[in-house]
Each structure stands twice: as C-alpha cells, then as structure tokens.
Amino acid sequence: MEFSYKGVALIPIITFLVDVLKSLGLKPRYAPFACLVLGILFGMFFLECRDIRENILQGILMGTSATGLYSNGRRASNTMKEMKNKRENKNKE
C-alpha cells in the first residue's frame, strides 16, 4: 500500500466538515461515526490508489485520525478555558 499525502491533508477537512454538521444539528455522540463515514467517502473518491480496498482502508485511517484530532482539540480547548478561569479567580483574590 502506498501512503498518500493527500490523505493527511484531508484529515482537518473531515474535522471541519463534522464541526459544520454538528452546528447543523448532528448530535456529538455521532461525530466519530460521521468522521469515519466521511473518511471512507473521501478515501474512495479523492485518493488515487489502484485498488478500492486500499482507498477504503486509507479512508478508515483518515476518519479515525480526524476523530482523534477533534477529540484532542476539544480537550485542549477545555483545558485552556479552565486555566484561564483559574487565573482570573486567582487574580480576584
């Protein structure tokens, strides 16, 4: 299986599209499934492998990577908000 750099570039796009879907009403618990489906679709239609099974496998990898990117980004954002709130509370004392 050849590694496609196009697939790496598609991971943040998948994450963005799932964010858009969430703003349109997708429940957060379905976000990982949406990442996986979009990853498979992007793998099938945008990657240039000879074998469709390789494209689907790379799509699965893109979808699961996008899920991790989304989860870690959300966790980092929440941590930064907590740190900011702690600093503000400390300054008030």
Automatic annotation (TrEMBL):
<keyword id="KW-0472">Membrane</keyword>
<feature type="transmembrane region" description="Helical">
    <location>
        <begin position="30"/>
        <end position="47"/>
    </location>
</feature>
<keyword id="KW-0812">Transmembrane</keyword>
<protein>
    <recommendedName>
        <fullName>Holin</fullName>
    </recommendedName>
</protein>
<feature type="transmembrane region" description="Helical">
    <location>
        <begin position="7"/>
        <end position="24"/>
    </location>
</feature>
<keyword id="KW-1133">Transmembrane helix</keyword>
